[in-house]
Amino acid sequence: MDIWAWVGFNAFVLAMLAIDLGVFHRKAHEVSVREAATWSVVWVTLSLAFDYGIYRILGPQAGLEFLTGYLIEKALSVDNIFVFVLIFSYFAVPARYQHRVLYW
């Protein structure tokens, strides 16, 4: 694979991370279900667009492998949410500060 593809990919990931953490998540606030769902849709859509690019450039096998890995990662990350809920409940972190704690 061309080195510029890797450079472009890493630049895109770093730009999205900077935008997400530096622009959209600056202040502590209570995250609504609607906001959480909206951000979930945004990130899933970006990952599916990336998967489509893999499918078009590297072929159906690579596209399916990425999609399979992505779905497994999503399924395995559900336990993290359970742990966050337990920790926030135990330490009685107010809802408006939970968002800030996660992005600290």
How would you describe this protein?
- This protein has 104 residues and is mainly α.
- The chain has one domain (3-102).
- Helices cover 83% and strands 0% of the residues.
- It is built from 5 helices and no strands.
- It has helices at residues 3-24, 33-58, 60-76, 78-90, 95-102.
- Helix 2 (33-58) runs antiparallel to helix 3.
- The longest helix has 26 residues, at 33-58.
- The protein is elongated, with a radius of gyration of 17 Å.
Name a few traits of the molecule.
104 residues, mainly alpha
What is the domain tally?
Answer: 1
Low-pLDDT segments:
none
Distance between the termini: 35 Å
For the biggest sheet, the summary is: none
Helix and strand sequence: HHHHH
Overall form: elongated
Structural class: mainly alpha
Strand content: under 5%
Mean pLDDT score: 88
The number of helices is 5
Give a count of the beta strands, DSSP E runs of length 2 or more: 0
Radius of gyration: 17 Å
Helix content: over 70%
Structure summary:
This protein has 104 residues and is an all-alpha fold. The chain is built from 5 helices and no strands. 83% of the residues lie in helices and 0% in strands.
Please render the helix and strand layout as text.
Layout: H1 3-24, H2 33-58, H3 60-76, H4 78-90, H5 95-102
Helix pairs in contact: 2-3
